[in-house]
Amino acid sequence: METLVCPMGGGVTRLYSNLTPTLSSMSPLPLQPVEDKLDPVFCQAQKGSPLCPPDPAELLQQCEEALRDRPPRFHRKFTELSDGDGSTSSPIRVMQWNILAQALGEGLDSFVQCPMEAISWSRRKYLILEEILTYRPHILCLQEVDHYYDTFQPILAGLGYSSNFCPKPWSPCLGVEGNNGPDGCALFYDQSRFEFLDSMNMRLSAMRIPTNQVAVVTMLRCRSTGRCLCVAVTHLKARSGWEWFRSAQGSDLLRNLQNLVQKHPTGLTGDPGATYIPLLICGDFNAIPTEEVYQRFAGSPLGLESAYKKLSQDGLTEPEYTTWKIRPTGECCSTLDYIWYSQDSLRVDAVLHMPTEEQIGPNRLPSFSYPSDHLSLVCDLSFKENE
Question: Residue 312 — left, alpha, or beta (φ > 0 → left; ψ -120 to 50 → alpha)?
Fold first, then answer.
């Protein structure tokens, strides 16, 4: 396993002006651009301001004002679940989302029904932040992030998130003129809810050969319960015909995660009866539920379950779609994104519904209403009571 350990990183002229003081208080990150490369709209410098995180509700309202000319946003409801298991704390909200790399949206992905104005960064960045602020996750797992250093890291740091980012070794974004650097996976967590223990970046292998796909793995301790959680975010190889490759990548990730959680003392979990630290694995797997890599995760000895199966009547079926787009090759409506969790240690308390076909509209995604071709997955999880 090739790993790289990275340190954890510590907005409209009026909208995010109070975020900037946070930047000067955080340790510099590797490859971080100089200050004048920060997004000038989101990260206006305001020297000498008191160090004070902004009010997320106010930022959301101002973001909505900046988007007041767009069609109505998707209104999605949570399904509350109760399976009779007790929980030790208030739920942990998790968001999984492939946000669509800006360079790919503009250059390579060819969304033929999406106007270029709708896919411009000047609009999309507000839509992306609006989605995050609407649901306020404690753990945020993102793929196709190509504006990490100039936008997402500084803004979310100002909102109290710490984070880690792993770029792809050979990101396709780099082949697009005017790109903002490589895309990759990013994992953010709410520092008021979690204490950082460890983090590493993985370059996934297939048959022992390093690939272009990556994962970010972070070990956290819940401040209210003292219990630990190992969180991973990944993005597996895309395209039909690469099913075997995704399966090998998934196996590599599972093997490394199993080694990681089993090597840590079980006392770290805050549950003396636990055999390993609970896992939360979020990602765009580029695989439908019948594919081998999905089956590998579903049948893993780590006892993983997919949170979004909870929305189905039988509890066994994934949503009909997590991505819906129209490219020159035709329309694609598939389920590719998942939130996996350790079912012995964690329970699902609520799951956010997918928008309807009518809400998405005939031109599909992305659109003036929604910034990505993938829909966000959001669920609330709790630690189960010790037996």
Answer: beta
Answer for the pair 36, 20: CB distance below 8 angstroms, yes or no: no
Nearest Cα residue to 184 out of 202, 206, 168, 208: 168
Helix (H, G, I), strand (E, B) or coil at 17: helix
Exposed/middle/buried for 216, CB within 10 Å: 0-12, 13-18, 19+?
buried
Through-space distance between the first and last CA atoms of the chain, rounded to whole angstroms: 35
Q: Helix, strand, coil: what percent of the chain each, to 5?
A: 25, 30, 45
Which tens digits make up the pLDDT trace of 56-113? 888 888 888 888 888 888 999 999 996 555 555 689 999 999 999 999 999 878 899 9
Average pLDDT, the chain: 85
Cross-strand pairs, 378:
95
- How buried is residue 123: exposed, middle or buried, by Cβ count under 10 Å (0-12/13-18/19+)? middle
Tracing tokens 């994934």 back to the chain, one arrives at 318
Q: pTM of the entire structure?
A: 0.87
Tokens of 328: 């020159």
CB 202 within 8 A of CB 195: no
Residue ranges of domains in the chain, CATH in brackets: 2-383 (3.60.10.10)
pLDDT in tens, 207-256: 999 999 999 999 999 999 999 999 999 999 999 999 999 999 999 999 99
